[in-house]
Amino acid sequence: EHDSEKVHKLRWTLTFIIAIGTALTAVLITFCTQNLIQVKLDLGKTWIDMERDGSTFRGAALLIIIALCTAFGAVGALFTVFEPVAAGSGIPEIKSLLNGIMVKRSMRIKTLLAKASGVVFAVAGGLPVGKEGPMIHSGAIMGAGLSQGKSTTFGWDTRWTKFMDFRNDKEKRDFIACGSAAGVAAAFGAPLGGVMFCLEEGASWWHPDLTWRTLFCAMTSAFITNIFLSGIKGQTHWGILSTPGLLAFGGDNTNNFDFTAWEIPGFMFIGVVGGALGALFNLANEHLTLWRRRKVTGRLKRYVEVVTIAALVSLVSFGIPMAFGKTFCMMEEREGCPSREDTTDYTVKMYCDDGKFDPLASLWFNSPEDAIRYLFYEPSVHNIDSHCNLSPSVLVAFIVPYIICACIVYGIAIPSGLFIPMILSGAAMGRLFGFVFTTFWNAIGIVKASHGTYALIGSAAMLGGVTRMTISLTLIIIETTGEVQFGLPIFLTALAARMTGHLVNEGLYDIHIELKHVPFLPWDPPIWYQTVRASEVMSYNPVVLDKQERAARILEILQSNRHHGFPVVETVKDKKGKQKRRLRGLILRKHLCQLLSPQYRYRVLYTDQEGPFAARLHSIKWEELESTYPHFPEASTLHLTKEEGAKHLELAKYYNPVPHMVNANASVWHVYQLFRQLGLRHLCVIDSEGDVIGMITRQDLTLDHCRQCFDIGVSEPSIRNWRPLPPHQRQRVRSEADLKTMRNWTIPRIPGRRLSTESARYTARLWPNKDERKG
Question: Cβ distance 245 to 225 under 8 Å?
Fold first, then answer.
């Protein structure tokens, strides 16, 4: 009981340390990014002034910016050359980990260093990426690394401490959830949104204690981030808590976000448009990712791709405002217009005259956070023809190329987040819709929301359409704006975007998980899983071990397959003299490899003369078996001498005597819930007498595998009462239309073998007429 209390205190202490580490990482990333972006802006301003003075040729600033941004992109891509897992946002990996699937090298300190360093140069290089997604991944790495008390990268270990109690999959997943929530809180200043993100996006198992810990970790992270950012940004003094996260939507001009109840249907329409655009974005990115996997292979090609795209994006981001010149220039202070005190710091002058600014350059050639704040806080008036409003032409000139660039960039070998690009493009889209709805509200004489409100709604629509987040997205925006009254319209907007997007495809994170062939299990399985039995999707003839096995056979089994769990059986004879394999337990591959390693084999192996009693005297404790977690010996590196191979290994001391099992007649829906809620990786299938007849893993529960087993498409009514063919007669049917054409097919027959009762019923269903069945 005393040791349990120590472990409990250490668990909460580590949660606090994870929050501090995540917050400091966020502050460091923000500090470095801001300074590099300022260097780019100052350099561009200097060369633009030189062009005006005639001291250099026109276009020199463009070449300098392209060279600088390309150099930033090249440096950021170097980190992924040494650690490829650091590329991307990392959220698909987090969702997989919280779902119970371990992703190799995704939780290492080396990955954290590459992620944090690479995203700094990616954002500073002007790529349409954000640092908020990688921040969530960084928080998850903090949770996974600090909780284990060891580092493979630096070669230190604290196995002599209570950290050993946390070296298992369950504890590690809980700490990853805490770190992910802390990452969301540090990025957006949204502790509740961070907790809900973990719960909505991936966690397969949840309990009240984990809720308290994730909330405590998220709040602490937001608080620490707030303290440090208050001094770093230079606008306030240290300790004045006015900057809750890396991206805060709230401001002094809260009246800019007013709206009326009559505008909620319009908000939902924006959500529908955002869902459609998000589905199109996901579809294009999916095909682009598949093309990259075929054509852009190898680290060198991927590195060259990043450098090339960085140069092209910098050309677009600086070249478009440069091409328009002074076309869109606006006065800093316009007569008869609302004050621009809240957006003065978020604009860029570029080629405009003194006292003016370029709104298009303020969107392209600026930090993404400042561009978002500019769209949110730029004042507007209800008169659509007023010179006070941001021109729709500026928004169109920004939205289309920016979304195309964001689609191309997501998936290249550089740390990149998706939140900021979607929020920025959605804000521009929402502001564009503000002009349309303003015309309508003017016609009927109803007071309407400002364009900044529509920008906020548009950001939720676009982000929800791409990621399909609803509850966590609503909470994040509510917390970052500090406006509770936005709860319903933002939720309805995100819900409309989610429902519209789901008509076409899944969320972008789920698409990338599927492209990586990860056996991810969503919250709810298809309803027709209830009509299918476990015996119809399981793997037949599983590899089993006896309670006492020869070491040579165990090593041969380990080296001949990649199974991670092996049923341990005891062979008995029934009343008729037939041999039956009674399930006695389940042993994991990693434990077998550990037992056969040179460090332990001399203690556990015994000869026939010595008997198992000799090995029992030197049996290995559970703590020793798990001492090297999560790295265990590989079977390919193990070698046994002829004498060692002839010895035996008693498995009774090391297997799990009460493994999870299911009857062969259980529904796949029930099996799915066991895997999803308990985080299982293996499930033994037994018959009514307790004999092992199969194994089920996560791959066996995926939709593609079940469809292959059923030889059918995706329509639920067509398979609700359908029985699958026997294994020797199965064929692949790709759609429901194919099922209708099967009446003209001939079912393959094995010579000299009669159809089973199940096959006969299936034949009768396809050919109701007996004369037709004679063939």
Answer: yes
Strand order through the sheet with 661-663: 539-540, 692-696, 683-686, 661-663
Q: What DSSP line would sit under 556-624, residue for residue?
A: HHHHH---SEEEEEEEEE-TTS-EEEEEEEEEEHHHHHHHTSTTTHHHHEE-TTT-HHHHHHTPPPHHH
- Please give the Cα distance from 48 to 70 (Å, whole number): 19
Backbone angles phi, psi at 211, to 5 degrees: -60, -45
| pLDDT tens digits, 36-83 | 999 999 999 899 989 888 888 888 999 999 999 999 999 999 999 999
| pLDDT top residue among 557 and 623 | 557
What strand order describes the sheet that includes 605-606?
548-550, 648-650, 605-606
Please state, as a whole number, how many other Cβ atoms lie within 10 Å of the Cβ of residue 528: 21
- Of 273, 193, 197, 269, which Cα lies nearest the Cα of 489? 269
Are 392 and 435 contacting, i.e. CB atoms less than 8 angstroms apart? yes
Tell me how far apart the alpha carbons of residues 533 and 753 are, in angstroms, rounded to a whole number.
25
Alpha-carbon distances, residue 365 vs 38, 188, 225, 407 (angstroms)? 11, 23, 27, 19
Q: Which two tokens stand for residue 433?
A: 């819709």
Question: What is the residue-averaged pLDDT of the chain?
Answer: 82
Is 35:22 a contact under the CB 8 Å cutoff?
A: no
Output Rg (C-alpha) for the chain, integer angstroms: 30
Q: What is the share, in percent, of the chain residues with pLDDT greater than 70? A: 82
Cis before 630? omega within 30? yes
| Tokens 């005891």 sit on residue | 570
Gap between the Cα atoms of 426 and 445, Å rounded: 27
Q: Is the pLDDT of residue 754 over 50?
A: no
Average pLDDT of the residues in 614-633: 78
Per the structure block, which two tokens stand in for 504? 């076409």
CA distance 176 to 737: 45
Distance CA 679, CA 168 (A): 13
Q: What is the mean pLDDT of residues 609-617?
A: 69
Strand partners, 649: 549, 605
Give the type of residue at 760.
A
**Residue showing tokens 């054509």:** 295
With beta carbons less than 8 A apart as the criterion, state whether 601 and 644 touch.
yes
How far apart are the C-alpha atoms of 477 and 212, rounded to whole Å? 22
- Angle between helical axes of 487-502 and 451-467 (0-180°, round to 10): 40
pLDDT over threshold 80, residue 111: yes
579 - beta bridge partners? 573
- How many whole angstroms separate alpha carbon 565 and alpha carbon 546? 14
Distance between CA atoms of 615 and 488, rounded to whole angstroms? 66
Rounded-to-integer distance, Cα 638 and Cα 598, Å: 8
Would you state the pLDDT for residue 290? 94
